[in-house]
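re: ur question from yesterday

yeah so i grabbed the chain u mentioned. its 317 aa long if i counted rite. heres the sequnce exactly as i have it in my notes:
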Amino acid sequence: MKRGWLALALAVLGLLAGCGPRPNATPAGPRGALSPTPTPTATPSPTATATPTPTFTPSPTATPRPLPTVPQGVQVTPFTVPWPTPTATPDPAPDMEALPYAPVHILTPGPGSKMTTPIDLRFRVRVNGVRVMHIELLGEDGRLLFRQVERFRAGAKGWRAYHLEVPFEIRAESEWGRLQIFLRDRFNRPLFQQAVPLVLLRQGQQDLIAQETWTAAITIDQPRSGTLVDGGELVVSGMAIAPTGVVEILVLGDDERVWYTTTAPVSDPNPQGYGAYEARIPYDLDRTHQVFIVVQAYGKQVPGVMYLNHAWVYLAP
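ran it thru and got these structure tokens back, copy pasting raw so excuse formatting
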């Protein structure tokens, strides 16, 4: 009897063992159900590798060359740069109470007139002390287009009027020109020069500007003509219309040669167009001489002297 119960228990245990899940087996789902799709696994992106920064290798330091040695007994002069000496600019010119009266009046044409050939020139001149008068027309490059020379007898005085035609020929359609009247004394020393700038036309319609030129472009206020100057320094000052901003000063001796020369800057012009200038000229003389002072200004559009004036003094040691 006991053996029968034992056999029955063993059979039940074996049946239960056969109904359990198999190892490593996937349990089946209910019939008709879809099997779940496996989720794809993302493939990791390749990690970017940083490019290493190139390392610059410093160039080898240049070895300085040794300075050349100076042989014994040789003296070396150091090189120096000469700096220009600053020149003081005169103070702005004051207004002039009265414009200076010139010994030459150009009545027509006026400054800046556009002229065809021939130019109708009208002027008057005071001939006191004048022996030679030059009437000239210059072209843009300074070439002489016209010249007429008048001579006066000794002792001539007073004013004389002139009216003449000035012919010219130019190749360009137009160019700058300058009409000038130049006075000299019996020693051929320059006394005065008056001028008007013009525009010369080869053809076309001229444009005449009605403006008289009766003022002196340069005055010499110091020294006054006929005075005595001593002390070893000659001071020349006055007012000037200077197209280039500079005047040139010449001192002619009693032998009619140039003894001293210098230049002086001209200050900004006043409402009348004049600027102030001043020059100090040292001199060394053993006796008194009568000297001739010439102050002249150069033109801008046309080269050469445009305006000129003079004074004379006694220069003593």
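noticed a couple things. The CA atoms of residues 95 and 272 lie 7 Å apart. also The two ends are 177 Å apart (CA to CA).
anyway ttyl
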